[in-house]
Design goal:
single chain; 280 residues; alpha+beta; Alpha-Beta Plaits; five-stranded antiparallel sheet; Ribosomal_uL10-like_sf; Ribosomal_uL10_bac_type; Ribosomal protein L10
Length: 280
């Protein structure tokens, strides 16, 4: 009877959470490096390694989540898909598929995959993951598209606004309720389903093999698209030739003689009548 009562505790269970660590692990006696995973951990390690290998051409956004249910996670995936869905236009009548993938990761094994990934800025990555613990997820984008990245960030900000810090009165009230005596002493407390308040924050991103902090991710999302940049470069390169063509067209035909005549008169007026006489 005692074992049954102890196994059905009314208090919610707390799971252990690990932070991502990119620092080299401590070498213990009897352990060899690099670490070899088995079974499920080996599958996760290989999966995370493949995700990191795509960061050369596909951005990877790191998200910290807390108090998420399965239904809320499904809704988040649907919101991201709806925000990045392209609409048909005159330039592209057929919408281009853009499917971001949200993956909930196991931070300890993902940290091992990060340590094995070559060419990564360990200092910047450690700064990004420093003091970040709890549930982590990565959002893989097919290609770098700043407007769509900006749309995703807007969806996250709108769906998960930052919570206000609790006041001293609220903290004191919670402490009093926690330490208060039960209403019916001697009876087992009824289980109550905890009210979840989901939180989601952007931790950083890996774009083109470089690590970006949250501020840098938002700056990247404000950039124009690649097609717009190409059009601007073409415009800058074609501007001098366009100006030269305009000058030549103005000076074509009979305008050329008038242009030269005006230039000669201007030179004569500048030199003056005594320009050719020797000095006294």
């Amino acid at each position: 009877m005692l074992s049954r009562c102890s196994s059905r505790s009314p208090w919610p269970l707390q799971t252990r959470s690990y932070a991502i660590s990119v620092k080299p692990p401590k070498v213990l006696e009897g352990k060899r490096l690099p670490r070899v995973f088995k079974d499920k951990k080996a599958f996760q390690f290989n999966w995370y390694t493949k995700i990191l290998q795509t960061t050369e051409h596909s951005p990877l956004v790191f998200l910290r989540h807390n108090a998420f249910s399965a239904q809320r996670l499904v809704k988040l995936r649907n919101d991201i898909a709806a925000a990045t869905k392209s609409k048909p236009s005159l330039a592209s009548p057929t919408p281009i598929e853009y499917q971001p993938q949200l993956t909930v990761i196991r931070s300890s094994i993902f940290g091992a995959a990060l340590r094995e990934y070559p060419g990564l800025d360990v200092t910047a990555m450690d700064k990004m993951t420093n003091e970040v613990s709890g549930g982590l997820a990565v959002l893989s984008l097919p290609v770098l598209d700043p407007p769509r990245l900006h749309a995703i960030l807007r969806v996250l900000d709108r769906s998960f606004p930052p919570r206000k810090p609790k006041t001293e009165e609220e903290l004191k009230k919670e402490l009093e309720e926690k330490n208060a005596d039960p209403v019916t002493p001697g009876r087992r407390m009824k289980k109550q389903r905890a009210i979840l308040h989901p939180e989601l924050t952007v931790v950083g991103a890996i774009i083109d093999g470089k690590v970006f902090l949250p501020e840098g991710v938002r700056e990247v999302s404000k950039l124009p698209t690649l097609e717009t940049l190409r059009a601007q470069i073409v415009g800058l390169l074609s501007a001098p030739s366009t100006q030269l063509a305009a000058v030549l067209s103005e000076a074509s035909g009979g305008r050329l003689a008038r242009t030269l005549e005006g230039l000669r008169q201007g030179l004569e007026e500048t030199s003056g009548p005594d320009a050719g006489s020797p000095p006294a």
